[in-house]
Each structure stands twice: as C-alpha cells, then as structure tokens.
Amino acid sequence: MFSSRVPGELLPNRIAAAREASPPRFDLTVSNPTGCGIAYPPDLLAPLADPEGLAYRPHPRGLRVARTAAAREYRRHGLEVDPERVLLTASTSEAYAFLFKLLAEPGEAVLVPTPSYPLFEHLANVEGIAAVPYRLDTEAGWRLDLPALAHAPENARALVVVHPNNPTGSFVHPDDAAAVAALAAERGWALIADEVFLDYPLSGGPGASMSFAARDEVLIFTLGGLSKSVGLPQLKLAWIVTGGPQPAVTTALDRLEFIADTFLSVATPVQLALPDLLHMGSAVREAILERCRRNLVALRHVASRVPAVALLEPGGGWSAVLRFPAVLAEEELVLELLREDGVAVHPGYFFDFPMEGVLVVSLLPESAVFAEGVERLLARIGMHLSR
Ligand SMILES: Cc1ncc(COP(=O)(O)O)c(C=O)c1O
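Above: query sequence and pyridoxal-5'-phosphate SMILES. Below: predicted holo structure tokens.
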C-alpha cells in the first residue's frame, strides 16, 4: 500500500532506545541552538508583528524585501548578489527537495559527500531519486576525491558540496571548488553548495572566506538560511541563490518558481521581518560562534591529555570529530557512555565515516555541560586504553 520512498522499518535504533530509557545529563549531540543557553535578544521576534503581515500577497520566489535582505548577507563575504537570483524556501531541506525535483527524474542520482550530513539519503529518497556518495579523503584533510568523481554514474544530475562540511568542519579547498565546477560543466551536472555553516569559522583554512555564490562557470545553487545563520530554525526561512551561465540561470529560476508556486510555503510575517531578523540576529550568531570556539578550546585541552585520541581540527561549523583507537566498537562505546556516564555523543558511522573509531561531538552545549561531558568521554576512552 505504501511507497518505498519511506523506509519500511521505522523503529528507534539501539542508541535512540538507550537515550529514551535514560536521558543523558551531558548531551553532546545537540544541534538545536535554541536549547543550549545561548542569549537571544528578548525582542528579536518583535518584527514578526508587523501589521503588513495581516495581508496575504504571496510571491512564489519570496517577497522582494526578503530576497533583498538575503542577497545582502553575501556582502559579508564580499559579494553583491542580485535579489532576482534569490528564491526563498521554508528550510534548506525544502530547498534540497525543490532542487532535486528541478534537476533529476525519478530514479536518477545526485552526488553527495561522505562523511557528511545524514539527511541527504532521506531527502533524495523521498523525492524518488538516489543519493550516491562521493568520498572526502580522510588522510588529505577531507579534500574531494576528484579522480573517483570521474567514475560517477551516468545518471547523476547534480553534485552537492557542503562548505564547511558537517560534521568534519572542512571547507572545500579553492582548488577543489574550481576542479569540481569544471567537472560539473563537462558532465552536465548542476552544483548545489550548502553553506549553512559558512558564518562559523573555527580554525579556518583554505576556502574559509570563499562563497560558492561567487561562481558562474556552471549552474550552481548556493543555500543558506536562518536556522544556522542566526540560530532560528523554528522560523522556517532559507534561501537559494542561483548562479551560472545564461540562459540556464533564467530557465532554472523560472522552473524553481513554478515548483515554489505549488507550495507557497514561506510564511508572510517571517519574510517581512527578515531584514530586521538578519540585522538583530547577528548578536546570536556571534554568541553561537563564541560558544563553539570556547568549547573547541576546552576540547583541545582535554583531548591533549589522552595522546591516543586525535581531535580532527574543524575548520568551521558546530561540531568536532575525535578519533580513538579501536579498543571497542563505536556503538558499544556510545552505549556505554550513555549508560555509565550520562554522556551522549554520535558514533562516526552515523555520518558514514569510512573507518571505525570515530565520535562526533557538538560544540553547542553550555560550556559547563560540554567540559564535564568531554572529561567523562576522555576518561572512559582512557579507561579502555589502560586495560
Ligand atoms: C549541512 C546541513 N545542511 C542543512 C541543514 C538543515 O538546515 P535547515 O534547518 O535549514 O533545513 C543542516 C542541519 O543540521 C545541515 O547540517
């Protein structure tokens, strides 16, 4: 009776079940910025009450005032973006859904990085297409494996880059960006650049100051949104900036407009409020960045005391990756941490790391919670190492 776009098996996995049985006191998996003690200006949502919002005059691409505000965000990266190239969506997840509908027939494929954001597979499957992984090279600081990309399947229609990537925190190296754009042009792929974490540089690195919105040698869609840029996922507003050669850009925008018109999913009040939200929200962005940086300093300090554990420095974003010797399986360690220490972390396999012995921690938690959580985590690994 039901389509195979949704998995048949929807039961919680062992880790989710263990968390439910005893909720962790030190949750190092949080990705929701509104739940970890970040100070939001109390009047931040006041602009949502603009009486203009009482009238419904939708535009499928988004109201001009909102598209202009989103375009202006790129000035922080030294770019002038034409608001006519911006289209609003309710989230970057919805942006992916629109782009997959735009670019791929059912049964075709999009190329997605691995390790990376685990939602890609679901986002593709619910659109009736396949997410085909391409490799980021662990030993080369997560550079794109370009030679392997040359063997991508014939039915690939687009390639996704995540800049910086979640959870590795790696920025796309400028040389890889140029090479992948050339390859995409040659193979007829569109590029989708997910830059939701671009505003969060940590240890930086080549590419940290580059936005894909500057590129035009191939059809390219650059994604951003309120959920990360000002820590407001509940407001449900994101954007797509379309770039590349004409007439492909105009055709893509017209077709995207057709898709967006079918849903008209972005609420009017948040569109009207966007200029103010982006302006006032910079304080939230700074607070989140400061939190992540501070927690990263604490993590470096704690990790340096257990030399067998390696912190893979995140260039940017909200998470960090730890490698530990394969003294026990990731899942067993994660379950033991939950059970014995009240600490929740993600196992690497959740993000399709190509090797065992990887844990991912969020840098968002309150600093006291984070510090105690990583102390317990490192102590637990240390205990296994000394056995
Ligand atoms: C790489 C990446 N893209 C997109 C999103 C989701 O953003 P949105 O809330 O706009 O759908 C996330 C959320 O964690 C993410 O990690």
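The radius of gyration is 21 Å.
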